[in-house]
């Protein structure tokens, strides 16, 4: 009977060791699965945040581009208006100019010695093109500044 009891105890002991070993492996597998799931969830959250940030930045960039395009269209409209105004002669340009003498001997003292100074046609076109270029560059600079400020505040650069 002692041998039978000893055999039963040994079998139960081996069974208990096998059960504990199996529980340890199942627990390890469970912990590994949890860690993998947590990593995948963190990765999904990171990708979701990146996507949201990308969308927000794209929306802001689109708004800035819209403002830039509006400013550019306004500059072209102003240029066309300036060209029309100059062509009609209803507006003038302030320039530092001298009048060409009409060929007569210079008068003793100051006086009118020629007609009203006027820009040549190429100079008028160049002036309006320069005005449009200045407005375009101003709009570009403002757009770049807005983009940089937006990126700086979003990405927390320098903190």
From TrEMBL:
Q: Which GO terms describe its biological process?
A: viral release from host cell by cytolysis
User: Its domain of life?
Assistant: Bacteria
* Entry-linked InterPro entries: I-spanin
- In Swiss-Prot or TrEMBL terms, this protein is called Lysis system i-spanin subunit Rz
The protein's organism comes out as Ectopseudomonas alcaliphila
- What's the source species' lineage? Bacteria, Pseudomonadati, Pseudomonadota, Gammaproteobacteria, Pseudomonadales
